[in-house]
Amino acid sequence: MSQSLQFITPSRAPYFTLPKFPRRSCTRFPVINLPNTKRSITITPSLSSFLHATSSRSLPSGNSQTGAAGVVSALSVGATGIEVDAVTEAELKENGFRSTRRTKLICTIGPATCGFEQLEALAVGGMNVARINMCHGSREWHQTVIERVRRLNDEKGFAVAIMMDTEGSEIHMGDLGGAASAKTEDGEIWTFSVRAFGTPRPERTINVNYDGFAEDVKVGDELLVDGGMVRFEVTEKIGPDVKCRCTDPGLLLPQANLTLWRNGSLVSERNAMLPTISSKDWLDIDFGIAEGVDFIAISFVKSAEVINHLKSYIAARACGSEIAVIAKMESVDSLKNLEEIIQASDGAMVARGDLGAQIPLEQVPSAQQKIVQLCRQLNKPVIVASQLLESMIEYPTPTRAEVADVSEAVRQRADALMLSGESAMGQYPEKALAVLRSVSVRIEKWWREEKCHEAMELPDVGTLFADSISEEICNSAAKIGKSAFGSVSLSH
Ligand SMILES: Nc1ncnc2c1ncn2[C@@H]1O[C@H](COP(=O)(O)OP(=O)(O)O)[C@@H](O)[C@H]1O
Ligand SMILES: C=C(OP(=O)(O)O)C(=O)O
Ligand SMILES: [K+]
Ligand SMILES: [Mg+2]
Question: Signal sequence: where (predicted)?
């Protein structure tokens, strides 16, 4: 029981101001209400005394929003013990309350992880949210994944939430005629075309989903595939066919996004008229509402308007629904209208993949820092996504640089980290998740002990969250803590 002596720590102080993000996953999957899935940890005197000690001993720690909300959501004090979901139970046993993870982990589900046992392995490994990306797969495929996650929750006591991510109407490639990927070599000529190709398709041809593509591009333009992971130069236009020479070789993946640059600037007029939510996206959203997903993430958000529209739509379609809308920050427009978008949304995602094609790569870290900080200030959960552990798609060990990147996102106090290809189609999904988990726990411990994480301004009680009583109580408790402990900063 020595572990339990560390239960409830400063960073776990009830300072959360975030009712929606992780809590929903647990209330929606009320593990604690299901007799066959109840997990109960008996409260020993030391544990209960620590629970009691929390209010007087704990020092608020800035953002423990998700962590505290997560713990509260995952815990329910019963007559004989605390009931928790299976993931929290495992973490409590392993780490004690003191270092139970606050950073939530999201896994994109794809061919590598869609089986029941694979999903279970991810849940055991700490997956809090399963993300399905509507760019890929059929609705039936996604429905099967949702059913499996629900079954895991019902039968095995997990509390994994579902996030549906829209395709968006940005320009992207079609599939690769069934191939999982296609390798491009330096100097090769590839044809990008709006024509439909028969089977077998001609070599080195790629479909483009946007009819105006050939008219919009100019010879000399630079074509970035998948956020710039592969690059081409447009060399010739022949009717609907655009011939391109590969300048930065790499792997083409199905449905990869395409971005055009001309004379050093992003070409955005071409698709400025395309709606953020396409007609296909609306059908997917109807599907998500019918399936009762927990989060809908909207790709390439440009303004708050689309978020407000979607929220009204959800409210009208799904009365009493608590589906949260996450704005994906992955375009120049989203950065221009950052604050209004975040205010309108239930949370944001720093979608670094496409963002890295829209702004110079070296500006992505500062954009991430800005978005995360703003979300912290506005009390909105924020996800850091894309390429966190990209090398683990192929290798079982991350690079040091990847570990440093994950650490930095945790230190910035992102609420959640997301795996994309690493879990969807990589060779080591469980290992990648384990890295996110161990790095999160380690960095959280470090900041707790060294008090070295990102400083944060507290919102004024009562102005931003007039309707959120629990948040106000917690903020007030934090302020009392501050005055009681004088020198202890609220934002240490
Ligand atoms: N439902 C799916 N079916 C097949 N492949 C998928 C699925 N979801 C993701 N993938 C694969 O995982 C890769 C990374 O996922 P993600 O980052 O979500 O997609 P993208 O980069 O296309 O937006 C995709 O390029 C695709 O190869
Ligand atoms: C998360 C992202 O979006 P998607 O994977 O849907 O392209 C991204 O671009 O970083
Ligand atoms: K998407
Ligand atoms: Mg994207």
Answer: none
Q: Which helix (H) or strand (E) holds 79?
A: none
Which pLDDT tens digit goes with each residue over 236-252?
999 999 999 999 999 99
Contact 404, 389 (CB under 8 A): no
| Angle, helix 65-74 to helix 86-95, in steps of 10 degrees | 110
Instruction: Decide: 251 in ligand 1 pocket, CB within 6 A.
Output: no
pLDDT band (50, 70, 90) for residue 16: very low
Contact status, residue 377 vs residue 417, Cβ threshold 8 Å: no
Q: How far is 277 from 298, CA to CA, in rounded Å?
A: 8
pLDDT band at 281 (very low <50, low <70, confident <90, very high): very high
How much is the average pLDDT of 288-303? 96
Omega before 200 cis (within 30°)? yes
Closest C-alpha to ligand 1, atom 14 = 421
Distance 129 CA to ligand 2 centre (A): 16
Per-residue tokens: 179? 């191939």
Judge if 40 and 133 occupy the same domain. Answer: no
| 68-96 mean pLDDT | 61
Residue numbers of the domain that contains 263: 182-272
248: domain CATH number is 2.40.33.10
Ligand nearest to the CA of 167: 3
Could you give the 3-state DSSP secondary structure of residue 151?
A: helix
Total structural domains in the chain?
Answer: 3
What's the distance, CA 424 to chain centroid? Answer: 14
* Residue 369 alpha carbon to ligand 3 centre in Å: 22
251 and 350, same domain (yes or no): no
b/e per residue 385-400 (b: at least 16 CB within 10 A): bbbbbbbbbeeeebee
Single-letter code of the amino acid located at 448: R
Q: How far is the CA of 144 from the centre of ligand 1 (A)?
A: 16
Closest residue CA from atom 17 of ligand 1: 420
Nearest to 249 by CA among 341, 187, 163: 187
Same domain, 307 and 390: yes
166, 170, 225, 328: residue to mutate for ligand 2 pocket, most atoms within 8 A of CB: 328
pLDDT category of residue 270 using cuts at 50, 70 and 90: low
Residue 313 and residue 420 in one domain: yes
**Is there a single domain that holds both residue 92 and residue 139?**
no
Residues 415-427 as b/e (b if ≥16 CB within 10 A, e otherwise) read: bbbbbbbbbbbbe
pTM for this one?
0.80
Please give the Cα distance from 205 to 176 (Å, whole number).
Answer: 9
Same domain (yes/no): 382, 299:
yes
Rg (the chain; Cα; Å): 23
Instruction: Judge whether residue 1 has pLDDT over 90.
Output: no
